[in-house]
# Entry
Amino acid sequence: MERLVLGLAAQVVTAEPHDAGRPLPQRAAGAVRAYARDPILRRVVGVAALGAALGAFVVLAMPGRGSVLEGAGVPMAWLVPGLVVLTCIAEITVVRLRHGEAVEELSLYEAALIIDVLLLPPRHALLAAVAGLVMASVLQRRPAVKAAFNLGTYTAAVSVLILLVHLIGGTAGTVTARVLAGVLAGTLAFTTVNLCCLAQILGFINGVAPWAVIRSEARLSLYMAVGTMATGLTTTVIALHAPLLLPFMAMPALAVTYAYRAAAREADERARSACLLQLSHALAEREDVVRQFLVLVREAFDADLGVIAVSGTGPALSVEAADPATVQAGPFPAYLAAWRDADAPVQLTENLPTGLRHVVIVPVEGAGRRLGTAAFASRRRRRMSTGDVTLLASLGNALAVAMRGAEHLERLTEERSKLQAVVEQSAEGIMVIGAGGLVQVWNQALTDCVGIPAAEATGRPVGELLDVPAEEERELLLPVSIDVPRVATELTIRRGDGEERRLRLAHSAIFAAGELVRDVVVISDLTREYRTERLKSDFIAMVSHELRTPLTPIMGYIDLLRTRGERMTPQKRLDALTLIGDRAAHLSRLVEDLLLASRFGDHPDEASLQVNTATHDLVAIVRQAVEDLRCDRVVLSAPEEAWPARCDSGRTVQVLTNLIGNGLKYSAEDRTVEVSLRRDDRFLHVDVRDRGRGIPSDSLEKVFEKFHRVEDPMTMSTSGTGLGLFIARQLARAMGGDVTLESTINVGSRFTLSLPAEGP
Ligand code: ADP
# Structure
């Protein structure tokens, strides 16, 4: 506690600019300014003044008093220096006691004071107490502020002790009850004064009232005071009456001292082990290792200052005992610079800044690589043991290893995140299957393709995730084996929404001890290509079928005409030729449809569709289309007057022929197809209504797509190319109109051709 306070005070003082070499008045003025600015210094000066005043009072008020106990038989000329030396030794003999977080320094100084006060007259006792303390301060090279504070405090406290012992105890020759009472009262007063002085500074530093410090420290101080008083008193009495027993008296004190020391050392070791354990965790976790190392190692070795500089990375880091959790960045101390590259531990005791007694510097290096330098400095005299230095050096190595580990980890993490980005941003689906066929990695592209999010997929068997409807394709999900670790398969899966997708799975597996370790699968969505491929083969099947259908009767009748034509009646010949003509016309229509469809892009225009619009009577066009079909199942209800429309008459006939033809084709032979006209403000509409099988609602738009047929072309009951409606709509749109559809399955359909009305 005391050490902490005065350590700070010393810093405050040394923080003043060095003013050696300046004229005395200026130096004095500087000192006064420092005093005025620094509240700690003000308190130290106050305590020193109090000590001086009380000491002077003792010297002046008790000039002729003799000692309380007589009979030592030692002349004053020997006794005084002897007791000065004894007091000095007692002050130096310090045991550091750790209780909780705090460290107490226990010395035998107070016990020596009791001896001084009892054996010497007041002035001599004061002299021995002060001189002993000064000697100890000089020997221990204590900072001036600390020495001044100690001197002030103890002079004040000893003065009070002397006054009370002499006033209450009188000048009896031996230990009487009065003497004992005097010593007891004096010790209590001594402790009180001592504690009050200390509380002034401690209270200020900790930001609490001095009274709070007195209350928290009173009990311990009292115990220590009573203990040292008893030791001092007993020693004095034994020295007077049975000096031969004195060594035996020293023994318990020594034993207690050493027991204290052992206990203190053990406590220190325990604290250090706890720190080192914490350090080992920090190094193992590889997080913020340099900072943690600095803070924990400084604490473990109870150093006053820890500094670490990592090669190639900015400023050095330092931490001080006064603020053990705050790591500050700054330059590497100049007094250590010469040893920054030392490749073995170095202990320094010379050329150190004021207040520091020794420094241990250790290299931070491991696996042949130098990563930095660490230094730990102490204000205490005791040097670090060889064992401690070796331990520190090993910790330096451990830090280097941890730093390299952390570096590797960082690099690995970076690589991993890069890889993750590649996997996540890949347009192809990527899945990694681990032992037991469980999914480990599942990227976004795969989620988009099969509709299963990664969170749902990971950790589950792949067979459970992907629904493969075809029995024979199910085994293709995980086809790798130790003999065939790389293989590509194609299969169709069904998504949750019922849509089917054709996938290509390229496997690349690793096996260990016959077991699958990892299978990296790159998945490509072939659905589009697969559909196009199917469409192509369907198209070829359809076209060849459609072309062959009219060709068969053509060739049959040509053959008939060639072999038996002369024997046939003219009517039969004409019928055969008419049929050939019909079929040839059908063929030519088919070819024209194919050509027309192939010419359509996404946005066909009039020119590409060869549409020439002009004003035509739509009623006449509809009549012509119905007549061309020569079918009595078609019922037309048309107005008598002309309905002018803007259209291409030929193309309009083509569209209507297709719509009416479909109505006939897709309804039973006994059902009629009704054709009617209606108009509104802008358009004229031709409705073609049938009572056929109708069109399912999900195909209402699709029937207008190229090659789309509601049935499978291979199993269809009616022939067709799937081009008619596509062409009809494109032509209608090119003329500024449209073809629309309403249909109910098994009830019938109504196709409507709408064209722009012309004129009034
Ligand atoms: P095609 O008749 O040559 O197959 P279309 O483009 O004219 O080609 O018709 C496309 C599909 O629409 C037909 O295959 C058929 O399935 C359906 N379809 C067309 N018109 C009707 C209708 N009136 N009744 C029922 N289905 C029809």
About this structure: The mean pLDDT is 84. The pocket of adenosine-5'-diphosphate is lined by residues 658, 662-663, 666, 690, 692-693, 695, 703, 709-711, 720-726, 749 (CB under 6 Å). Residues 272 and 301 are 7 Å apart (CA to CA).
